[in-house]
Each structure stands twice: as structure tokens, then as C-alpha cells.
Amino acid sequence: MSSVEVIGMRDMAAPLASGLEGVVVAETRLSEVDGERGRLTLAGHDVEALAGDGGVTFEDACGLLWGGALPSAPARESLRGAIAEGRTRAFALLGRLGDALDAGDGMDALRAAVAHHRGDAPPAAIAGAVATFAAAWSRRCAGEEPIAPDPALRLSADYLRMVRGAAASEAEARELDTYLVTVSDHGMNASTFAARVVTSTGSDAISAVVAAIGALKGPLHGGAPGPVLDMLDAIGAAGEGGAPSPGSAERWIQAELAARRRIMGMGHRIYRVRDPRAAVLERAIERLGRTAGGAQGARLALARAVERAAEAALRARHPERPLRANVEFYTAVLLDALGLPRALFSPTFAVGRVAGWCAHIDEQRRVGRLIRPSSRYIGDVPGAAAVPGAAAPPH
Ligand code: COA
């Protein structure tokens, strides 16, 4: 028997792990997702303790993920300076990006812009660049000139300023930090896995981040918050004064399910309870509402009513599988409250998640082993006689 036949037989016998569900592909110190208890640990810290209530900034989360511990005051300052320099250098690159930022989709623009970076760019340069490119793309879409970074600001405050054109309040910057820290890492999610696969081949960091951006773009991963806001708008418009009328949320959701469409912001591969990040972001919206004089109250009430209606409809349809709100549901409400346009929601997810991607790239490099799973061949066997009249399988 040839070695090809031996390998083929082994693959036929192995169980097929479609979607790689439950397959452990790496050991990591970066984060743990406990789907049964609804807990997210980021490098030894509960996400609830870190984000929002913990007052941790995006730069602190980078220090934690890249260095293994929350940074001391001098280390935080140096990290803040390095990420700010990354923003400034990326801004200087804007004139040399060709038509990268002309793309209609923000993730396409980000992918193309980041690809212009040197392959061996360090994490702080990559993190600064993602924020600058996302903000510049958003300005271009609005027909406005990009705004140069202010290196004196931390990333959250500067990002809001570069997108909106006006200085952010401390409360707004703090809640964007809450968001960025909350989404900074999340186990072996699809974009992180993509970055690790590319890294495992010995390729460079920018190639890995470009692959990760491509994976994050998909609606099943990071592309959901824009459509969540569309859903809230549609249900709010069907009600009175932005509030759902009795049954309007339920009717809208049932119509989506009947059309075999998924309810965005609901369900998760790992969580069997409510995504803990949804609660962190929900509290951030509440805090923001208090400082903004309660302006977010109606929107939050609408979101909560839609969440209840969606949960009930999905429970009735899938009693065997809990489908609860995920991080994207309240991301939509929070980023909208911060004045970010909905087309920028997925790129803003990348602004936070790039911290985790860079940490995983470093971790994977230390492993130094190619990620190369197997597939089961179900195609034609060379030399086998074709069965007359048999239809060719679809490709
Ligand atoms: N709305 C409606 N039905 C859903 C659903 C949703 N949001 N999420 C899962 N389901 C249903 C599927 O249709 C499937 O039903 P079926 O067996 O009758 O076909 C069943 O639940 C299992 O779905 P599956 O695709 O196997 O689960 P998964 O673990 O691969 O999916 C997600 C996880 C996140 C991709 C999925 O829940 C989803 O598409 N959610 C909406 C998109 C979203 O919010 N993405 C952001 C994730 S953070």
C-alpha cells in the first residue's frame, strides 16, 4: 500500500470536525472564553473587572496582552507614545495608499490600507495604523479631509476626534476604551485563527493582520453591528416615537425568521448563556446616558425590548440551543451613541481586536509549528470507471 493510500484511509476514519467546533488548536495565555458560565478572562482578568468599571484604557489592554501584565505608569506612557507614533506615521502614509481608501466598504479599505505597511511592522505601529486608516476612510466617505492624529491624546480620544472632527469628552473616550478593551481578544475566534494560520507559515505580521481583517469582515463574525442598528431602526420606525409598539419587535423578528434570515447580534458559537460582553457594553451605554442627560435612554429601552423579543422567538424555534445576545448587539447601540457612523462599526471592531491579533501572532511565532489540518477527499478516484449516466457532484 502506498503512503498516499495510508494517509487517505486515516483521514476517512477521523471524525469530521465541521467548523472545527470543540477542536483545541493552541495553548494560549491571552484569553479564555467559558461558554457555559458566560465568563471571559483576558490574561488573568475578568472582562467585567477590566473594561468600564476597571477604567482600563486601550493602551493598558495592549500592555496586558503584549506584555503579560497591566503596564506600570511609565510603561503605559511609553506604550501610549509608541501607538501615537504609529498613528502619526500612518497618517503620513495616506498620500501613498493609491485608491485603498476609496473602497465603499470600510473593511475593504482597511485591508488594502494596512497591506501598504512594511511586513515586519511592530504591534504599536500596526495598532496606531488601523485606527488612523479607519478614521481617514470614514472622513473620505463623508467627503471630508482626514484629520491628523494628536499624539498627546490616548487612542480612544484621538480616534473619536479623527472621525467626528470635534474633541471627545472624557466620558465618551472612557466608554470607547470600555468597548476597545472588551473586544481586544476572545479566544480562538475566526479572525485570530486566520492570523495564527498565516503566522504559522513563517509569514510576516502585516500579512497575518490583513488575513484577520478579511475574516472579521464577514457578517457571522464582525460584520453584524451595522445590521443590528438597521434592525433597531426598522423596529423603532414601526412603533411610536422610536419605541416598539406592542408586537412590532416580535412581528419584525418573525418575518426575518420566516424568510430564513438570521437575527444579527444573537447567538454564538461558544456561549450558551448571554455573552458577558453584552452586559459590559450595556452598562457603558447606561453610564453614557447619565452623563449625556439621558439621551440614550429611549434607544437602550428599544434595544432591550428587541433583545427580549428575539430571545423568545429564537427559544421557541430552537429549544435545544440557547441563542442569546452577543457582543455585537450592544456594540451597535454604544458606537451609535458615541457618534460613530454605522459603516464604521466593523472597522472600529478591528481597532480593538488588533491588540489581540498582534499578541496571538507573537504567541504563534513562539510555537513555531505549521498549522495544517487534513481534509477528507470525496472526489473522483483516478482511474475508477465512470458510471454511465451518473450525475457529476456539484463543486
Ligand atoms: N438567528 C436565527 N437563527 C440562528 C441564529 C440567529 N442569530 N444563530 C444561530 N441560529 C440557528 C441556525 O440557523 C441553526 O439552525 P438550523 O440548525 O435549523 O439550521 C442553529 O441555530 C445553529 O446555528 P449554527 O450556524 O450551527 O451555529 P454557529 O455556532 O455556527 O453560529 C453564529 C454562531 C454567531 C455564527 C450564529 O449564531 C449567527 O449567525 N449569529 C448572527 C450573526 C452574529 O450576530 N454574529 C456575531 C457573532 S459575535
3D architecture notes:
With 395 residues, this protein is an all-alpha fold. Helix content is 55%, strand content 3%. It contains 16 helices and three strands. The protein has helices at residues 3-13, 47-50, 58-67, 73-93, 106-114, 123-141, 155-164, 170-182, 190-200, 205-216, 225-238, 248-258, 276-291, 297-317, 327-337, 345-367, and strands at residues 31-34, 39-42, 45-46. A three-stranded antiparallel beta sheet has the order 1-2-3. The radius of gyration is 23 Å and the shape is globular. The protein starts with a helix and ends in a 28-residue tail after the last helix. Residues 19, 220, 224, 262-269, 314, 318, 321, 323, 326-328 line the site of coenzyme A (COA).
